[in-house]
Amino acid sequence: MRQMRPTITYSCIANCKVTSQLWSMFLKLTDNNFTMPEHTADLLSCWIRRGGSKSQKKWWRMIPACIWWTIWKERNGRSYENKTNSIQKVKEKSIVFFYFWCKLQDNVDLFFQTKNNLTAILNKMKNMPGIMSQMPPLPVFLNEELASSLLPSSAQLLALFSLNLL
C-alpha cells in the first residue's frame, strides 16, 4: 500500500492561525514588534537581535526553528496519528522545546569548551619534556581529528535530543 504524505508549504509554516499565535507569543515574551516577511529567507535574514548577551543572541536565533519544529510536530501528529492539541497545548510544547534547546545549547557549549581546553592543555604538556618526563604516559595517544570525528557537533546533538523530546 502506498503511503500518502501530506506536503507542507511555507504559508502553512509562517502564516497559519496556530503559527501566528506562536510568533505573537514569542514576540510578546521578548517585548519585540515584528512584521512577518513573505518568504522564509527574508525572515531569517532580518531575524537579528541587536544588543544583549551572547546567550541571548543564540536564544533569539533559535525562536524561528523552535516555532517551525513545533508546527511540524503538530502537523505530523494530526496527519499520521490523528492527534490534535489545543492551541494552549501547542504553545506549552513550543515553550518546552525552546527551554530545552536553550539549556541543551548551554550544556553543549560548555562540553565543547571543556573538551577544547583539555585538548589544549594536553598538547601543551606534550611539548614540555620536563613535565612529561615526570608524569606517567597518557593511556592513549591524543588524536584531535579522531576525537572531533567521534564527538558529534552541537547542532547534531540538538537535533538528536529534540527528536526524542515529547
TrEMBL record:
It comes from the Eukaryota. Pfam families: DUF3755. PANTHER family: FINGER CCCH DOMAIN PROTEIN, PUTATIVE (DUF3755)-RELATED, MYB-LIKE DOMAIN-CONTAINING PROTEIN. This is Uncharacterized protein. It comes from Solanum commersonii (Commerson's wild potato). The lineage of its organism: Eukaryota, Viridiplantae, Streptophyta, Embryophyta, Tracheophyta.
